[in-house]
Structures are given as C-alpha cells and as structure tokens.
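Example (one chain per record):
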Amino acid sequence: MKIDSARGRGAAAIVAGLALLATTASLTTAPAQSAAIAGDCAQPYPVAAVTDGQVVDGLTVSDGTTPEAFTGEILGVINDGIAPGLDMVMARLTSDEIDRVGIWQGMSGSPVYAEDGRLIGAVAYGLSWGPSTVAGITPFEDMDDYLGASSAPRTVKVSDKAARAIAADSDVTAAQASRGFSQLPMPLAYSGLTQKRLNLMKKKGPDYLRTRGAVAMGAASAAADAGPESLVAGGNLGAAISYGDITAGGVGTVTSVCDDRLVGFGHPMTFGGATTLGLMPADAVYVQEDPVGPGLKVANMGAPAGTIDQDRLTGISGSLGVLPPETDVTSTVTYGARSRTGSTASLVPDYNATITFSQILANHDRVVDAIQPGSEVATFSVTGTDRDGNPFDISFAERYTSPWDVAFESIFEIADIVWSLSSMEGVTVDDVTATAEVSDTTAMYRVKQIEQKIRGQWVTVGRRQPAVAKAGGSLKLRATLGSAGVTHLVPLVVPVPENTRRGGFLLVSGGASVWDNAIYKAKTPAAMEAAVANMVRNDEVVASLYFSRRGNNPTSVMSDSQDLVVRGREYAEVRVRR
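Predicted structure:
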C-alpha cells in the first residue's frame, strides 16, 4: 500500500507563541505569484512626538487575509523599554476581536498609525499577567535600524506611575500592570512531528539539533488561499525555516511594504541577524482565546513569496520576489506493503541537519505507524558544491537494528554528515536523499571468537593463546558470529607490516561496536567523501592489528557486508616472528 504524500509541499497549521506572534504554517510548492503587492511606504511618526491620550488606529488580520481596522489611544512611553536607546510605546487598543480575546499572539507587526497617517510602530508585546487589550509597540522609526546587538528582554518593566496610568485607562489593575510587558518565549513550531518526538530529539538527539523549546503543531484541513498580493500593511506574514512535511516557522503581521521590501513582527523571530528565512503569505483560520494568557492566531502559510534576509531586534525584513535557496530533503520509507516518499525544503543552512533528521524521522513514523524495535537497510546521498563551485556527491549504504526505536536510531549518521557539510565555509548542500526498507527483526550477530589457521588447522586465539604473525606476511583468520544459536563464519586476512619488530594485539569487532570519528574531522567535501568511503558499516566485521604502544595507526581490514548488524568484539595478543 502506497501512502499518499501531499502534492508538492504538505499543508499544516502551526500554533505557538512567538512574542505576540502565532506560529502557523501550511505550505505548498507553487512558485511565487506575480500579482502586484500594494505598498504603503509608510512614513515614521517620531516617538518624541507621541503624547498620552493620543488617538491611534491600526490594521491586523483575525480571519482570512484581509486586514481589519482597530482603534486605540496612547497610554505613554517607556524610555529604553525594549533596549538601550529603543523605547516602547504603550497603547490600549479596541476592536470586536481585541475586546473578545485581548492582544493575541499573531498580532506582532500590526501597524499602529497616528491621526495624520504616519506610522507610530508595530504591536509586539503584551502585558505579562494574561489577556489584556494593552499592547507594547515597537517604534517604526527604529524598525529599519539593525544595529542593535542584544536580544530583546523577556520582560519590560513598568514604573508605578505607568502602571497607574494603564490601570486608569484599561481593565487591568495597577498591580497586574506593574508586572510589565513580555515578549513571550519563542518556541520553534514544527508540523509533521509529535511533541513526544521533539522532546526525544532534544533529550537524546545530537547537540546541534535546533529543537530547544520546539512545539508540535496540528494539521490543517486545507491549504492556504493566501497569495503574495495579501502581503500588505496589517496583513499576515509568515517566516519559515522549512516547509513541506516538516514546516517550521511562525506567522505574525506585516508592518509596512515599500517597493520590493517588507518589514514586520516588531521583534526578532530567531534573532538570527542576516538570514534566509522564507517570506510567506498566510491565511488566518481563527484566533483562539485563552483565559490565562494571550490568545493565539492559527493560520496556514502559502508558498514562498520572497526571502526574509534580516532577523533583528526590532523585527524582520525581506525582499519580495527573490526566493531563498533551498536544501531539498527527500526520504522514501518502505515497511512491508506500506511505502511513502516525502520531502521538505530547508531554507536556512544552520537548520539543514535538524530538518534532515526531522524529515526522515517523520516519514518513518508515518509509514511504520509506531515507535517500535526493528531493522532497516538504508541508502543516503548528499549533493552540493564546494567553496570553489565544484560539485560533490557523497553516497553510502548502511544497516541498522534497534531493540527499542529503529526510526530514531537510523538517522544519526546522515544528520552528522549534513551538519558537518553545512558548517563548512563556502559549501552549499543542495539535496539530501534517503531510502529505508524497514523490517520487524531485531536479530543481530555477535562476535564470539577468533581463530587463526596454523599449519592447516584452525586454532582459537585470545588472551591465553596468542596469534602468531610473520613480519611481511599475513594473518589468516576467521571470526565466529552467533545469533540465536546459529553460528556464521567470516574470513579475514590481515597483512602484517614488514617493519614490525615487536608484539602487539588483534581486535576483531562488529561494525556496530566501532566508533570512527573521521567524518567529524573532515574539513572539505572531498575529505568527507573519503571518510564516508572508508566508514565501517554496522553489518561488517573489522580486524585491526595494533603494534604501536599507543594503539595508533592500526592495520585494518573489513569483511563483506553480512545479512545482520554485527556487535561485540574479541581480543587476542599477537607474537611476531621474523
């Protein structure tokens, strides 16, 4: 049975708090459309001119793609409230939806205008205590200034005087207001993976996986209707790290559009500085109220319409029309009669390994449909270009067996390789391809003993019975492998160096019990290709002769691949005669 994958990129909805930013995403592979985008080229209203009681109005989206108006009044300005030299404007806002929900996650970037039409700034913060119609606004005159070097604080303090002013003009008490404004924690929201999987990646995955604070999101029932023409002041704005089976990103609001440039959010997304996030239109589904905190907007992302190239203290900014480069991760998983091919586009090189790990894991979970033990035979390929523009193609095959979770334990090597390549200066990773055939067996071989052929007879060697080697000759060996009472013999012939003058030792190991750090030492794609070509597979047996006192630079040979993963190791002393 073939499991259908969504045509092009899969659709999903993200729900998470990104400051006042609801992360929501469902994505397609359609190219950016050419519909004209209505630019407003807003003029900034100076913070110095903002006065208490000043009437304001603004735009945001709670349903669909069309901005809706809201009104409000200024409550005051907190000097240096966001960062040194960066003030926060406080305002009480009102509309039918704001009155119902309060300032919600997803309003980040909503433009707030003075009566003369100039732009005061973007809604970006809410009161720390819970639902409220009081918002913290990032000044627009600072939103194109990307010189800030420190991240925005989680909480903006409110003085007693400001707290009393907020209480006098809103439904909160002075004590509640004194808790300050808060930019909510910024979890990275993922589609395609359960929260259990994300937690496991954080706990037991490689350190480089960017899943700290990650939250899982549910699937949407339909693809987004939003196109680039909806990217207008007050409209939805998505910023995506990846899209497809694994959609990672967030949805907030556009603050202003001018020519082919756009700015939004009013606070960072990941605070990544110069970046290559996908600039995505989005379609809001609804705003979910929350009795103990800010409401949150659920939305579906459309296809990329440009590139977010700045992720800074005062917001995100990007260019329309030019799409970010993609690293395409494709995996095909087969389990009995079930099979599926899925794909994800990674848009930020620093996340390539995370998206590779996530894509392959999610596809396993979709096909195997359980967290369970088993085995698999896998093939992998990574293509790209080195710093000189020369293409590379690094491919290998491997076998894995896990007594608890075959999906999770079969991804580490390919993710390590993608992480290393993506970390190399000037190197571009274009495509990552994986295939896996999964079975229920957990049978494995274990190395039981080593024998040497001496004068036509096979003799067991070990600690008490040393192997005998002749300098310049070879050791004719065989390893006995055992699995569930069945034995299997593997021949090994190890050359003995001519210049060997002292005894040493022999180590025969199953490939799954060998750790080789060569791929972590590779500094170029060519070095990585050589390291991968020399990797010991989990289903091979390796025999190594050590004659150095430090145990370095052994002479090693590998067997052919076996039909099961091989674990364990046996040791024997070696005497050399000349």
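Caption: The chain has a mean pLDDT of 85.
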